[in-house]
Write a structure and sequence with these properties.
Chain lengths: 344, 100
């Protein structure tokens, strides 16, 4: 952050004081020293302002100072009572599930802060609460409107759901969606809701690994598949680069025209997932740098739109790409290509 | 309610999208009305009375499970869909997850 350091006493006044023999030697020396220090401070201020103007011209901006939200982990101890028992030092826990939930949740908060300037799910520093060891061999993770919940998996179909950092990013993004678009969980809005969680969950995973769009696998849930699924050749839950991939446990449609209003949101998220992935791969670089910024701005600039449909969201991302990157037409072209690929 | 009649249960949704059109995983089970406690019987019968359509609960939990429950009620085959928190434990526990 660049701060203006303004001096109350002008330099010429200090110099006059320094040269006025009616004042004592000590006072005249103090005035002379002050004038020299003020000179240095003014040069530093001018250089700081020049640096700020350069950053603004380059399209970077000073990051606002945002404190880290509190991250809490609770242990359900294989019951379904929420939130469970508070873990006092999750960072140092010998229970790897607890430690992972804490570390990855903290990392997702850092991701949203550093990449998008967002202060937690509500952009106001709300605490992040996770409950682990929910139920018995529970093959699921979810956001219940107030917190994240993670099951251990049955060890056969699925492993511990905290093993997937994309899963953690996915669940937390449901919270972000709740505080921004507040999308319903059915129809087009439901598919968008799920897609935003897959998009930002995947971006988080890529960001943690420092991957480019070409290095990323664009798979959702690859790290939580159990041996029974892997033995049958499955590699993921969903594939953003090829939603109809036969190696995905939950294949999805690839065209918007294939969707029907009563579809499970995990099924209807296929087309917007493919649109996002395609836009990122066409543009190249890192997913969170440009296309991710467009998606974030589109998600956060509209206010609550519970029934937002995919055509409207697609149009919003096109408009946003043009507004955010007027001198980089490749960004709009990539976003447009993404949506045309799925028929929007 | 015929205590010997069966209740078919299918768990849907969740993070993995159980039971979706393209899903290769499903979670199903059956049990008899007689396997429910009297409170669970009453609660489930009440649900069949109050939930008049097959539509899922409004604003379901993101990535939460829902349960499609089919049973003969008052001589008619009925199907309802409930969020997990509304389903008696015995019904939740009767399903088994499997690969197709």
């Amino acid at each position: 952050m660049y701060r203006c350091t303004c001096s109350i006493v002008p330099r010429d006044v200090l110099e006059r004081l320094a040269g006025d023999e009616r004042f004592g030697a000590e006072l005249r020396k103090a005035a002379s020293d002050s004038a020299r220090v003020s000179d240095v401070l003014r040069r530093m201020r001018n250089e700081s302002r020049a640096l700020l103007m350069h950053d603004m011209a380059m399209g970077t901006r000073p990051k606002p100072r945002i404190s880290e939200p509190k991250v809490q982990v609770y242990n359900c101890r294989n019951t379904t009572a929420l939130p469970g028992r508070l873990v006092t030092s999750p960072r140092r826990s010998a229970d790897r599930t607890i430690k992972r939930a804490f570390e990855d949740t903290t990392s997702v908060a850092t991701f949203y802060r550093e990449v998008f300037g967002r202060n937690s799910l509500d952009n106001a520093g709300i605490s992040l609460i996770s409950s682990v060891h929910y139920g018995v061999k529970y093959n699921n993770a979810m956001w219940n409107g107030s917190q994240m919940v993670y099951g251990d998996g049955d060890g056969n179909l699925f492993l511990d759901f905290t093993l997937g950092n994309d899963v953690v990013g996915h669940e937390l993004t449901h919270g972000v969606t709740q505080y921004t678009l507040d999308l319903e969980y059915s129809g087009d809005a439901g598919g968008l809701n799920e897609s935003l969680s897959d998009c930002f969950g995947s971006m988080f995973r890529q960001w943690q690994a420092g991957q480019t769009v070409d290095q990323a696998d664009w798979l959702i849930g690859a790290d939580i598949l159990g041996p029974a699924a892997r033995e049958r050749g499955y590699t993921c839950l969903r594939s953003m680069v090829n939603p109809a991939d036969r190696k995905a446990l939950a294949r999805q449609p690839t065209r918007y025209s294939d969707l029907t209003p009563d579809m499970d949101p995990h099924y209807s998220s296929g087309p917007p997932n493919l649109a996002f992935c395609t836009a990122c791969v066409v543009l190249g670089g890192k997913s969170w740098e440009s296309v991710g910024q467009v998606w974030y701005r589109a998600m956060t600039a509209l206010g609550a739109r519970p029934s937002l449909d995919m055509p409207d969201f697609a149009e919003k991302t096109r408009q946003t790409a043009e507004q955010m990157y007027p001198s980089q037409p490749a960004v709009l072209a990539a976003v447009d290509k993404g949506w045309r690929t799925v028929g929007l | 309610m015929n205590q010997d009649s069966s209740i078919a249960v299918e768990r849907l949704g969740g993070f993995a999208g159980f039971g979706g059109p393209g899903a290769r995983i499903r979670s199903c089970g059956t049990l008899q009305w007689s396997q429910l406690s009297s409170d669970e019987c009453q609660a489930l019968a009440q649900q069949f009375t109050e939930v008049t359509s097959v539509e899922a609960a409004s604003r379901p939990t993101a990535d939460g499970f829902q349960y499609r429950i089919t049973a003969t009620v008052d001589g008619a085959l009925r199907t309802i869909v409930l969020p997990e928190q509304s389903v008696p434990a015995a019904l939740r526990d009767c399903v088994r997850d499997e690969l197709l």
